[in-house]
Amino acid sequence: MRRAPITLALFVASSVGVGASGCVARNASADVRAPMRVIKAVERAIDGGDLAAAHGSVDVEYRLAEVLGAFFTDGTEPERRDLEALTFEMFDRTTTQHWDECCRGRQMRLRFKKQVAGDVWIVSEPTGPDAPKFAWEYRLSQRGGEWRITQRELRVDAIRSDSTRFWPMARRKIAELYGRDPTLAEFNANLPSIQGLLRKRSFVVGSQGR
Hints:
Helix 5 packs parallel to helix 7 and helix 6 packs across helix 7 (about 185-200). This protein has 7 helices and 7 strands. The chain has helices spanning about 35-45, 50-55, 60-70, 70-75, 75-105, 165-180, 185-200, and strands at about 20-25, 110-115, 120-125, 135-145, 145-155, 160, 205.
C-alpha cells in the first residue's frame, strides 16, 4: 500500500458516493451529534471541491489568537486578515492532497474521541479493507452559538501533526532571520518560505488518535 505523504495540517455524503457513519460515545457529556453534523457538511463540501464552503465552518481567527496570543491580536486588521488568508491557503493545500490521496471515494467513519472543557474532538477516518491508516482529528468549539472547527490535525500511522508546536516554531525561526521578534507583517511575508523547513518538525509520534 502506498503511504500518504505528510504535510502540515493545522483545517461526505451519499449523494457523491461517500457516506459517513457516526459513533456517539456514552461518556460524552456534550451532545456530539451537532459537531458531527458540522464535520459531515465540511467533508461533503471538500469532496465536492468547494473549499470556500468548508472555510465557513473553520475559525482560523480563534486558532491564531490561541497559538500566537498578542503577537496576532495586537497586529493591524490588514495584517491579521493576511495571516488568516495564509492559514486558509495552508488548510486548502493539506486538505486537497490528503483528501485525494486517502479519502476520496471511501466511506468516512466519524467517532467521538474526547471532550476537553467545552470542546469536542471528532475523528474522521476512511474505512474499507484497503483503507490507509489515516485520520483527520477535528476540535470543535462553540463560537457565537455555533460549533466551529478551531483545530485540525492529521494522523498517518502513528505520526500525528501538532499545529500547536508549529506556530511558535515558525515565529522563532523568522525571528532568527531578523535577530529580533518580527512584526506580524514580517511574519506573514516569511511564513510561506519556511513552511517546508518546519513541517517535519511539527509532528509527534504516538497513539493519540486511538
